[in-house]
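User: Here's a chain of 262 residues. Predict its fold as tokens.
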Amino acid sequence: MGDFLMDFVLVLFYTLRDVLPILILIIFFQLVVLKQPIPHLKKVILGSVYVVFGLALFLMGLEKALFPVGKIMAIQLSDPLFIGVSENEVGNWRSYYWIYIFAALIGFSTTIAEPALIAVALKAGEVSVGTISVWGLRITVAIGVAFALALGTFRIITGTPLFIYIMVGYIIVIIQTIFAPKKLIALAYDSGGVTTSTVTVPIVAALGLGLSSAVPGRSAAIDGFGLIAFASLFPIITVLGYAQFMDLKTRFLKIKRERDAI
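Assistant: Prediction complete.
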């Protein structure tokens, strides 16, 4: 308990050190540049305290829980004894199907719970006046992340270069961007960014590093990173695909109504 408190105090100090310049900058512009008093000063002070303590607790949670859990799961699921792989099958990508399933499920579940995605989906629903479904957008993005992590873990196990997947992925995005409805392109690109936030990144990073250290012949520095790039790219593809599908569906229904009216 004493070690935990010491670690928390240290993390709290570093968090305060990082947040303080932002607070000073905001206060400076409010008082010196805008020459306006800070509205609801007590609430602002209380909110700042909450932010510092909340970030410190979050960072402690990452260090003590999410990172270790992600690494342990990756090591266990890639252990030949655990998944029942013989010595001759070690390193064979077909033998690690549990890894792909776990990566897809963890990607889907963490993305659904991602606060940044929830915020973007709610705002998108408000701006579009209900045209964009909040749950439809969240599930579409989550499917993209699920596929991305399954493919990313396949890349780690096979040892294939990262740039091939990323190049092909962005070529697909460019082609989709040309044909997708213009009003949803920006939302699709933003959806790729919000997936790499507070909940997803720690587990994804731990999964990649743990898996690369457990699979024979892989390097944590070379192969362990890159999963987050997958998690940023493939949601763009799925959201653009969703936008194209909805656009085609709308056109089809419009044509059908016109035919029925004749």
